[in-house]
Specification:
- The chain is an alpha+beta fold.
- It is built from 15 helices and 26 strands.
- The longest helix is centred in the N-terminal third of the chain and has 18 residues, at 104-121.
- Strands 17, 18, 19, 20, 22, 23 and 26 form a 7-stranded antiparallel β-sheet that branches.
Length: 590
């Protein structure tokens, strides 16, 4: 609980506490087995399990316990006698209750005596870990398939939405669980493999992967590696930090150097800010069989470049992500990755850079971010309500990021977050639309919510961030609710220079009202502020002062980008330095 308190103090949001193997007694007499299988609380660590789980629930957190069922139930377990009687085993002789997952009687008692009592104490779901082997009395049947099937069905018994967490048992076994990809070794090679692995898994419909973010075991401590891994985790199906029980291998952000601590904390907060987007995309996954992590070639099957960026992917309908999986270049203090941009205009949601598409390039980032690109016309619903207690409910406020340059729309999906009523269509949907051209204005519309309005707040504080505009657009902004202009005391319009965004704040929008915001297209921005970006990059680079001066004077003097790139090449600057400058200079060529 002290750890949970520290997370809250640091504003680090977590919504699930997964409690690993040693929740149960493991130090047992060897005559009873290895200790890997267990169902009796370790009272040294958890003297009052029900109170512990209740406190986690009070904080808005769900809980899961890790299990390895292979060795059955031995006489040291507190429920052994009841289980043995139910199975007709000689308990006076301490005969073991063998794990026989092909026996319906064992399955029934497995839940009745081993799991339901823990669930009554407060356990929400189970992490079914690997120990049960690949064979049982039914030829060809992997016991893990049985466990996944029955745990999923049993978890739904009270009417709640079923959840289970399990290892991979072959193609098709992903029908039920969130998938645990195994104990990852702490190396850059492991990190580099995970985006490709996750993207490729979409090809058999496996969208729900949960990796050991930051790596689980072995390897060496590497702050930069953990920072990059955490950034990838934000844009993974499930974000779960994990590690071995080494005293030196914890993933608490404050255990790393300050720059990594800041990066990890911001990544964890960003994950929870995206909850409205994530939830809507996961509904899309249910409704349309589209995984949240999707290969580029799903959207562009005829483009050969879509097959050449193994670690790049769509993250839902609105974002392209390219995780960085290599160390920063010495002196440059940035790391890069090859990115392919489809036709159109793309915005990096972190740096504010705009890019013309229809090309490949290397993108470089400092430790603060990875390339995460929103398409022109993209609409990204977010929230600042990110604590565990807030994350479990539909938010009272929304922040909607809109990216100018093309038409787009997004359907925000919400339901009760708990039951399976969504399968019967019990939900609330809010359509958001962005368009350009009519009356020479750019218009964002949030339409009245349809469906069961009792599922969401009656009214919400709304912030709309329209990216891709000049400061002059602020004074010409028009804000309407149900066709009536909003009074100035109930809204504000500001400007974010770094993002080139007009920021509109509305105090209260009833969910049955239509919100419309329009800006003049004559105030669209098409520039990246290249001089300042290059100055900022050179300022932090640990290279020769003379070289910095030469490059910056050249940038200020020569405005023809092809000529400038040719001169930089003739200067024989370092390849990585050249690529960073080329990215900044060629973001928007028009």
């Amino acid at each position: 609980m002290e750890l949970m308190d520290r997370f809250a103090q640091e504003n680090l949001p977590f919504t699930v506490a997964v409690i690993d193997t040693e929740w149960h007694v493991m130090d047992i007499d060897e005559k009873y087995g290895s200790g890997w299988t267990g169902y009796t609380w370790n009272r040294e660590y958890f003297p009052e399990p029900e109170r512990f789980l209740g406190e986690l629930h009070r904080r808005g957190m769900y809980t899961a316990l890790n299990i390895h069922p292979a060795e059955g139930v031995k006489a040291h377990e507190e429920m052994y006698v009841d289980m043995a009687k139910a199975m007709g085993v000689d308990y006076a002789n301490e005969d073991p209750v063998n794990c026989d997952l092909a026996d319906p009687k064992f399955i029934e008692n497995y839940f009745t005596y081993l799991h339901h009592p823990r669930e009554e104490e407060g356990v929400d779901f189970w992490w079914i870990d690997w120990q049960q082997g690949t064979n049982c009395k039914v030829e060809g049947l992997d016991p893990l398939w049985i466990l996944n099937h029955y745990h999923f069905l049993d978890n739904a018994k009270s009417g709640k939405r079923p959840m289970t967490f399990s290892r991979y048992a072959g193609p098709g076994s992903h029908r039920y669980p969130v998938g645990f990809s195994g104990d990852t070794i702490v190396t850059w090679k492991s990190l580099d493999f995970q985006p490709y692995f996750t993207v490729n898994a979409a090809n058999i419909g496996y969208g729900w992967w949960s990796h050991d973010i930051g790596g689980h075991m072995m390897g060496c401590k590497d702050d930069e590696l953990v920072a990059r891994w955490t950034q990838f985790g934000v844009y993974s199906p499930i974000m779960r930090l994990h590690s071995s029980r080494s005293a030196f291998n914890g993933k608490e952000p404050w255990r790393f150097k300050k720059e990594t601590e800041i990066v990890m904390g911001e990544a964890l907060r960003q994950r929870h800010r995206m909850m409205p987007y994530l939830y809507s995309m996961n509904y899309r996954s249910f409704q349309e069989d589209m995984p949240i992590v999707e290969p580029m070639y799903y959207e562009y099957p005829e483009e050969k470049e879509a097959y050449q960026v193994k670690n790049q992917y769509y993250f839902g309908s609105e974002l392209i992500v390219a995780p960085i999986t290599e160390k920063r270049a010495a002196g440059i203090n940035m790391a890069g990755i090859k990115v392919w941009l489809p036709e159109g205009v793309w915005y990096d949601i972190y740096t504010g850079m705009m890019y013309e598409g229809g090309r490949s390039l290397r993108m470089y980032r400092d430790l603060n971010s990875i390339p995460v690109l929103a398409k022109a016309g993209g609409i990204l619903p977010l929230t600042e309500e990110i604590s565990a207690s807030e994350a479990g409910k539909n938010p009272d406020s929304l922040k909607i990021a809109v990216y100018a340059g093309a038409a787009g729309e997004f359907m925000l999906y919400e339901d009760d977050n708990l039951t399976s009523a969504y399968a019967d269509g019990v939900c609330a949907k809010t359509r958001m639309v962005y368009r350009e051209g009519r009356d020479e204005r750019a218009v964002f519309v949030m339409e009245p919510t349809e469906g069961d309005l009792s599922l969401i707040p009656a009214q919400r504080e709304i912030t709309v961030e329209l990216t891709g505009f000049l400061p002059e657009a602020v004074k010409d902004a028009v804000i309407m609710l149900d066709g009536t202009a909003l009074a100035e005391d109930s809204r504000s319009v500001a400007y974010d220079r770094e993002k080139q965004a007009v920021v509109v704040w509305i105090e209260a929008v009833r969910m049955g009202e239509k919100l419309e915001i329009s800006l003049p297209l004559k105030h669209r921005s098409w520039e990246n502020g290249v001089d300042k970006r290059i100055f900022d990059f050179l300022n932090q680079a640990e290279i020769s002062f003379v070289q910095k001066d030469e490059i910056y004077e050249l940038v200020k003097k020569e405005r023809r980008v092809p000529v400038l790139l040719s001169q930089l090449s003739a200067m024989e600057v370092d390849d990585t330095l050249y690529e960073v400058l080329a990215e900044l200079l060629t973001g928007m060529m028009a």
